Amino acid sequence: MKHDYINFIPSDSRSLIQKWVAEIDVVIKVVKARKTKLGDFRYSFDNKCIITINDDLNPFSFLITLTHEIAHAFVYKEFKGSVASHGKQWKEVFKGLMLNFLPSNIFPKDITTALSIHLMNPSASSCNDFDLSLALQKYDKIKRLNISNIKLGDFFMSSNRIFIKGHKLRKRFKCKEIKTNRIYLFNPLANIELVK
Asked: Per-residue pLDDT for 195 more than 70?
């Protein structure tokens, strides 16, 4: 079986990932980047586990996302969908898997620090953790502009619509769509395009 995904993760993590993949008999597909998710786990009608991961992730993001989805596969194998997808069981499995990588030098120090904090109570997506996402973005090959990088009052484009950046509320920026005057809340790390 061809393991295309292996080339996307740090070399020091490969043997352990391959061991887990063999243990749970999961198919891993590297797919074109999707806007709404970095990866996903599903099972087919014949109980075959399938994981897809976006092809535009840096090696550290890819490893964390892949481990996140492998944790889903382990939980599915044990509980067959009878527990919450990001509930207690998944959190314990994900944390246990990720801890294998922290003592090593796989991750740079800034990611290790943010990831250690994230693992205290992992969320459904690493994208929901601002500090971890910010640390991971530093290692992207393609540098993307996000809403945190522009000034208050700047105009930007997202999903083919133009917005003006407003003040930050608790966790998100309050922005107004120019055409409709409707207010939208944006994640600080939302990828945008600056409008001159």
From this structure: yes
Query: Secondary structure of the chain in the HEC alphabet?
Result: CCCHHHHHCCHHHHHHHHHHHHHHCEEEEEECCCCCCCEEEEECCCCCEEEEEECCCCHHHHHHHHHHHHHHHHHHHHHCCCCCCCCHHHHHHHHHHHCCCCCCCCCCHHHHHHHHHHCCCCCCCHHHCHHHHHHHHCCCCCCCCEHHHCCCCCEEEECCEEEEEEEECCCCEEEEECCCCCEEEECCCCECEECC
pTM, two decimals, is: 0.83
Query: Given a cut of 80, is residue 176 above it in pLDDT?
Result: yes
Task: Give 2's pLDDT tier (boundaries 50, 70, 90).
Answer: very low
Sheet holding 193-194, edge to edge: 183-186, 173-177, 161-168, 155-158, 193-194
